[in-house]
């Protein structure tokens, strides 16, 4: 009994209990670290992935191969982390940051906008709900590669023939062109993409007319054009696109909420840059 009252004995017993408890915890931790659990949900995911790609249910051999690949990847991943290979790796850091941003997005709850909020969004973001200006035109192409220094003169002569009293048919004029000769209701930005910005800008400034006009320069050469119609850009009425406006409003709200959540996470950390006070 005297031994039990000895302070040194108490210290030894306490140390022994702590050591035993730590050993038990360490053994369990080591066991968890050395065990790869393949859950039912993961097996179902693998089977669904196989079915979507192969168009048939996986056989036992197929499942065994997929599980083998899964275990291989997990084992190598754990060993890489154990060796510290995940530290200071830009690709891994970006991937984890991306996954965390997805988590933040999934946790956010979508607010329900009122009609007034949607009307205001539509009115203040008309560029999102505008049909583009379009042009309908025909053109005749003159190739500098084929005509050289005579390109401009040839185009000017052809213009006189087209608009003169004889009204020469356009099919017999110009050079072969890789695109079509007639374009209907084409957005100006698409015309710029195909012919170049200078051509699109000059074409959009012409008046609609039965007469041929030009020549206009493009990325390919010179063109005579007949502008048949010009439809200006117009804002689509709110009631015609309520669902689209709501979708756009929600996407913007999610973007703002996600960014705020990310900034809140960043605010938990102190940033120190070496060499900068």
Low-confidence stretches at least 5 residues in length (pLDDT < 50)? 8-12
Number of strands: 6
Domain count: the total is 4
In the CATH hierarchy, what is the architecture of the largest domain at level 2? Roll
Strand order of the largest sheet: 3-2-5-4
Count the DSSP helices.
10
What is the name of the CATH class of the largest domain?
A: Alpha Beta
The overall average pLDDT, rounded, is 84
Q: Give the SSE order as H and E letters.
A: HHHHHEEHHEHHEEEH
Main sheet record: 4 strands, antiparallel
Word description of this protein:
It is built from ten helices and six strands; from the N terminus they run αααααββααβααβββα. The protein is elongated and about 90 Å long. Residues 8-12 have low confidence and may be disordered. The strands form two sheets. A four-stranded antiparallel β-sheet has the order 3-2-5-4. A hairpin with a 4-residue loop joins strand 4 (213-217) and strand 5. The relative contact order is 0.10. It folds into four domains: 1-34; 36-87; 88-130 and 237-267, no CATH class; 133-232, Chitinase A, domain 3, CATH 3.10.50. 55% of the residues lie in helices and 12% in strands.
A few lines on this structure:
The chain is of the alpha+beta class and 277 residues long. It has helices at residues 7-33, 40-54, 60-82, 90-107, 115-124, 144-147, 151-163, 188-195, 197-204, 242-266; strands at 130-131, 134-142, 182-187, 213-217, 222-231, 234-235.
């Amino acid at each position: 009994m005297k031994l039990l009252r000895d302070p040194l004995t108490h210290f030894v017993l306490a140390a022994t209990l702590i050591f035993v408890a730590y050993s038990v915890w360490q053994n369990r931790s080591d066991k968890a670290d050395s065990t790869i659990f393949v859950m039912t949900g993961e097996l179902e995911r693998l089977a669904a992935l196989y079915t979507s790609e192969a168009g048939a249910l996986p056989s036992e051999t197929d499942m065994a191969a997929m599980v083998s690949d899964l275990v291989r990847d997990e084992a190598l991943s754990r060993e890489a982390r154990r060796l510290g290979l995940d530290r200071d790796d830009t690709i891994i850091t970006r991937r984890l940051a991306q996954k965390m941003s997805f988590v933040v997005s999934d946790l956010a709850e979508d607010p329900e906008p009122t009609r007034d909020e949607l009307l205001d969004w539509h009115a203040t973001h008309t560029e999102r709900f505008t049909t583009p200006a379009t042009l309908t035109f025909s053109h005749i192409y003159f190739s500098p590669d084929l005509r050289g220094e005579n390109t401009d003169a040839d185009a000017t002569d052809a213009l006189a023939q087209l608009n003169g009293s004889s009204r020469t048919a356009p099919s017999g004029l110009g050079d072969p062109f890789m695109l079509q000769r007639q374009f209907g209701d084409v957005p100006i930005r698409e015309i710029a993409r195909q012919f170049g910005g200078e051509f699109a800008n000059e074409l959009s400034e012409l008046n609609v007319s039965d007469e041929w006009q030009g020549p206009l320069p493009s990325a390919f050469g010179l063109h005579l054009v007949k502008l048949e119609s010009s439809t200006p850009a117009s804002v689509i009425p709110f009631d015609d696109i309520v669902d689209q406006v709501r979708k756009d409003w929600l996407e913007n709200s999610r973007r703002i909420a996600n960014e705020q959540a990310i900034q809140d996470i960043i605010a938990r950390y102190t940033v120190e840059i070496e060499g900068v006070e």
